[in-house]
Amino acid sequence: MKRRNAWLGIILLALLMGAGGRALWLWLDRPIERVSIRGEWEYVSADYLRTQLAPLVVNATWLSADLGELRDRALNIGWLNEVRISREWPNALVFELVEQQPVARWNDDFLVNPKGEAFAFAPLSPPSGLPDLAGPNGSSEEVLRYYQRLKSHFAQLSLDLTQLRLEPRGAWRLQLNDGVWVMLGRREHEVRLARLSASWQRELYSLGDKIRYIDLRYPNGVAVAWHGESEFEEPDE
């Protein structure tokens, strides 16, 4: 009988603890009433971030909210590079947000961060003054890396590399000083760039405003198209 009573006592205590624990959980797991955002932002505004985050916590409750899932969904918001989320007593979530740092335009509708990762800038406007890069899907890292190499090269000639394009077949073309286009092609890039540097320093620098584009895809020398002239036949690489 004593053993039976002991077992009944243990069972009753477990039931009471379970009921109390559930009651405590239900009391704590109240609807989220406040979302705080923290961080330093240059391109996005707090109002934009609040508008984008608000739908993520609709009908969510404080304890049941899956912070990992919320983070993954928040990272889909344009301009966010890092997201950290924590709970704040009694019914708030705190979002620590790090924005993307754009270093170039990409394929008209996107921007590129320093890692070469593309992200959409809509519904915000892109910053002005960024170089314009383009290429096949998935090539943003390669194009940015080559842009950085070429930028240093042309800086030695006091030229600004404003556009860089990787064509689907692997040919490169670029624009200098928002004006002169250069057809670099698919191969022998270093040889061709050296040829361009020599030609530019020797005579082309004084004619820059008259040049429409420079074609480096010839075995020897460079071909120059001038504004107002008809097209000349392009070489077949």
From TrEMBL:
It is a single-pass type II membrane protein. PROSITE patterns: POTRA. Pfam families: FtsQ_DivIB_C, POTRA_1. The keyword Transmembrane helix applies. It is found in: Cell inner membrane; Membrane. Keywords: Cell cycle, Cell division, Cell inner membrane, Cell membrane, Membrane, Transmembrane, Transmembrane helix. Essential cell division protein. May link together the upstream cell division proteins, which are predominantly cytoplasmic, with the downstream cell division proteins, which are predominantly periplasmic. May control correct divisome assembly. Belongs to the FtsQ/DivIB family. FtsQ subfamily. Part of a complex composed of FtsB, FtsL and FtsQ. This is Cell division protein FtsQ. It comes from Halomonas casei.
